[in-house]
Amino acid sequence: MAGSRRVANDPLRKQRILDAALAVMTEHGVHGTTHRRIAERAGVPLGSLTYHFDSLQTIIEQAFEHLAETMSHHYRATLEAAPDRRAACAAVTDLICGAEYATPGDLTLINEMFAYSNHDEAVAEVGRRWLARSHASLALHFPEPACRAIDALIEGWSIHQAVEQKPLDRAMVLATVTAVAAAF
Amino acid sequence: MAGSRRVANDPLRKQRILDAALAVMTEHGVHGTTHRRIAERAGVPLGSLTYHFDSLQTIIEQAFEHLAETMSHHYRATLEAAPDRRAACAAVTDLICGAEYATPGDLTLINEMFAYSNHDEAVAEVGRRWLARSHASLALHFPEPACRAIDALIEGWSIHQAVEQKPLDRAMVLATVTAVAAAF
Amino acid sequence: MAGSRRVANDPLRKQRILDAALAVMTEHGVHGTTHRRIAERAGVPLGSLTYHFDSLQTIIEQAFEHLAETMSHHYRATLEAAPDRRAACAAVTDLICGAEYATPGDLTLINEMFAYSNHDEAVAEVGRRWLARSHASLALHFPEPACRAIDALIEGWSIHQAVEQKPLDRAMVLATVTAVAAAF
Amino acid sequence: MAGSRRVANDPLRKQRILDAALAVMTEHGVHGTTHRRIAERAGVPLGSLTYHFDSLQTIIEQAFEHLAETMSHHYRATLEAAPDRRAACAAVTDLICGAEYATPGDLTLINEMFAYSNHDEAVAEVGRRWLARSHASLALHFPEPACRAIDALIEGWSIHQAVEQKPLDRAMVLATVTAVAAAF
DNA sequence: AATGAATGAGATTTCATTCAT
DNA sequence: GATGAATGAAATCTCATTCAT
């Protein structure tokens, strides 16, 4: 009857669930993330989660995948927009210091993701892809070893900001990035 | 003799529990850490955990505190042993690359700790003290801005190693550290 | 039909749980009332209790609420059926002495409720409403001060019967009620 | 050596424990009474409780026994001091209304005791003795049936005061007691 | 005589997941 | 296709009681 293909009532629901999952992980950490909290946050019925996703673990994995996707794109776009290495150094500095690159909540999520990746192969793969893409984006402007160092700075300072809850000294960051870029 | 002072049957038990907690967190992450797993690992009965600690959260907090303590000491000792800045750069490189500074398991734990610190004020404080002590140790050899940059490199590369599961290029690390140290 | 309204498999379950809770409290007292005992008595799985009720305390509160409701209704009906004050005195005497008003188990429960009300605000409110409704029912036949006195007799003799485990002297009760009614 | 008879270090400790038990029961109810809370309240070590008493139940039983003893004595003394029936009516009214007879906490405890007596034979016996002694004290002034009625008023109004948390109308109480005394 | 560390049984509660509708 | 009532496994935690000292 009428073919069994039907359009979902709420085609954005899966995405809404993943966004809610990220919000819950930001607030409560992976260790405090439950079906119920996600459902409440997303404003969808509880059964909807297990209907759309095999398990909580799957939700977490796909949520992190979505996060990495978004971040990597922004990262890529920012670096592609830089005309030369000097501009690229400034762009990286913006990525590190700027709240528009990553809100405090985003920094929390990145920490959660890298921590979780040690215990979940799918997320580990997401993390590796993230690093590879960052590396590729940086490679538009910097030699290979500088890419690795700059990427470490980005990760490291993300943690520092999350822990210390205060902004970085922009001049110091720019000087460091520039020095590292020039070292190779 | 005749004194009425009671003595613990197993005076090292608290520490054994904390060590077990770290082991469980390494293997399963904070999200997979439970009383039962810790008790089994420590070889103590379940009730022992809540006899010695108010809650699982308390155990996690004190375990991370213990971890930070140990790491900071090693960090400090390594830098104090360096006679001059060149030696200090090499020492930092060892800290970053060397498996004797931090086993893969330790790297996992550090990730867990910084992730958890976003959701637990006591651990946040432990994280801040960790950063402050690292900074102080580095300040034995480097100017203030360089300390912050080097520290970010340490944290960032810790994550990279944990995610990529492969050793860093020692020469590249040393070159980066040296360049950063010279930049200020 | 075809409606998407979900329907409880066992719509009377909540009430069954509350009834079971009262039975357990009768037999074991509030201090011996546990989830397990209630679940067993109600013939429902343990998880069902916390699915339907936030906590054991909530179950106890709602169970007492249900008890008060039932009792108050019977009380009201009995007094409304009395055509005049003489009949009302007889009715009150029946309420006090008659096992059909309150079984020994009910007397126990009433004691439990008033005792518990000193430690739980919700049950305290239930107790106050109970008293107010008793008072209103008595006020159909007696002047205000007599209502209070008669109500005290009902409560007091309930306790006596529960403690002494033997029936009251009906003539003495009737004489007392009549004397109190005439005193104001 | 030196004979094994020794004087206890703290001969009042048993009584201190029983007093603490009553305090805990007043605040938390029998259902919230634990060894630990009693020990803390009494300022004695935990092991002291099981050293002096066989079980928690024993402590509760003896505490209620002590309560009944104290109350009965006060009751008896008050009624013995009354020269005639009129004075006895006033004395009973004082017992019912006066906060010096029973603080709000005492009323709570009496409720707890009668509730608990339905589930503990030893306390049931204490309750029966209490009633018998009250009866005997009242019998100094009133005929047998009046004693039972007056006693019910005392118990009933105790509950009312505990539930309603406000004082009784003394004149109404006196009028009721007088009327009941005159009825037989 | 006295204690408090220690434990195991069991209490409350949470929660991923199942499944009838 | 979708839901939320329902459940059982397991999580956290409490506590009476034991017992080495």
Fold blueprint:
The structure is a homotetramer of 184-residue chains.
Chain A lengths: L12 H16 L6 H8 L3 H7 L3 H25 L4 H13 L6 H14 L3 H18 L5 H21 L5 H14 L1
Helix pairs in contact in A: 1-2, 1-4, 1-6, 4-7, 5-9, 6-7, 6-8, 7-8, 8-9
The structure holds a DNA duplex (21 and 21 nucleotides).
Can you tell me about this structure?
Four copies of one chain form a homotetramer. Chain A has 184 residues and is mainly alpha-helical. Chain A has a domain at 63-183: Tetracycline Repressor, domain 2 (Orthogonal Bundle). In chain A, 74% of the residues lie in helices and 0% in strands. Chain A is built from nine helices and no strands. Chain A is elongated. The termini of chain A are far apart. Chains A and B meet through helix 6, helix 7, helix 8 and helix 9 of A and helix 6, helix 7, helix 8 and helix 9 of B. Chain B binds a DNA duplex (21 and 21 nucleotides) through residues 4-10, 13, 34-36, 44-52, 54-56.
